[in-house]
Each structure stands twice: as structure tokens, then as C-alpha cells.
Amino acid sequence: MTVPTPGELFGLRGKTALVTGASSGLGARFAMVLAAAGATVWITARREEKLNALAATNPALRVLPGDLADERSREKLIAAIAADAGAVDVLVNNAGTDSGAKPLDETPTGFAGVLGTNLVAPFHLAQLAARAADGKSLSVINVSSILGLVSAAPLGGASYASAKAGLIGLTRELAGHWGGRGVRVNALAPGWFRTEMNDELFADDRSVRWIERNTMLRRAGEGSELDGALLFLASAASNYCTGQVLAVDGGWTAR
């Protein structure tokens, strides 16, 4: 086995990546970081205009809009990348949604919808990417959450937490099944980072103080503080790492 030099360890030159939910927030940041490391990055989400705006900032970004809640859309996504660039080397399953409903109010239909986008879609995309890889190395990064590890009650919803916990179970199971195929599957579990989904939370001073009080580092995270963890899981630096959950949470889950 060829051992990469320290300078090559975190590089992604010549690699092809796919980042879902890349129209804003952490997904947009992930795409830019992978591109900066040398990868050609395909970005997908429903909001094509936001994807185009992001792609205009970096020639390494390629736009493929789609609705990940739709099975056929997911199939077309992987097929389009395979036809243009070959197999995906790095898949970042970042897209997610939240019903916003409390457990006593959430409907079974709403619950199932969240699981469809946050859990079923990542499974299907990983499956499609692993099939297309056909023995070639592949790193799947499932973006879970600390809410898949611990409860944040009274904040948070049952469907979101269940999907994020399910992603962790899925990560371990796929890692076990596909390790012999050269497919590594790991989960990234961010703590409290500002996104479109939690803007209201960060707009509430009481909620911000609650986050600060219960985080060992006494603050929420900055988007750039996920860069290193993402590159570790995407690159040769984590070649012997699979089935793991990497929490980047300022110590929240260590309480």
C-alpha cells in the first residue's frame, strides 16, 4: 500500500465528491471545503438558483438540482455523475429537514416525511454510490447530529432526532457490510451551529444562553470548525476509520 505524504494526507486532488443539501448553511460550506482540497464537487438541493450562485464562486463546483425526497431523482443524480465523471469518491449526505412539530402534535405523515429525507434518502444514495463504485474506494459521510446521540428536550422533535439516530445506526451497519468493498462509512455529528433550520433558536437570547451554559467550550460552533473533521473523513487521513461517529460539539455530549 502506498503511504501518502503528510502534504497529501488530507488532499482530494482528482477526486469526485457529491454534497447534498448544498444550497446554504453547512452544506454550502462543506462543498467549498472539499473543492479547496482539490475535489470536483457536485452540489445538489431543490433551490437551483442558490446552487448556481454558489457554483459561480468556484469553478470546481458542478450543479445538479434535485429533490432528494424523490427516489427517481436520487437515481438520476448518481447516474448523471457516473456518466460525466465516473464513480463518486466522496458522498456527503448532508440534506435534512425538520417538521418543526412537537412530539404530541406531529402527524405520522409528517414523521414519515422527515425520515424519508433524513434517513431513507441517505441510505439510497449510499447504496447507489456503492454500486457505481464497483470496488473502487468510496467514503460516505453521513451528517448526523448530537440530537442523534442525546436528547435536547424541550427543544427538538421526535422525527428529526429519530432520523439522526437512525443515521448513526445506518452508518455502522453499512460500514460492516461494505468494508470489504473498499467503502468506508462514517458519521459526522455537529453540535450547535447556526443554520437556516435553527435561525429562530439563535435569535432567542435565552436559547443562546442555554447552549452556552451546557457546552463545555461555552459557545456555539463556527462553520469553519467542521472543516477539519470533514476533510479527515473524506480523505486518506481516515483510510483505517469506518463505522465511527465523530462529534464536533464543543463538549456537549461529554457532559
From TrEMBL:
Belongs to the short-chain dehydrogenases/reductases (SDR) family. PROSITE patterns: ADH_SHORT. Coiled coil: none annotated. This is SDR family oxidoreductase. It holds the Pfam family adh_short_C2.
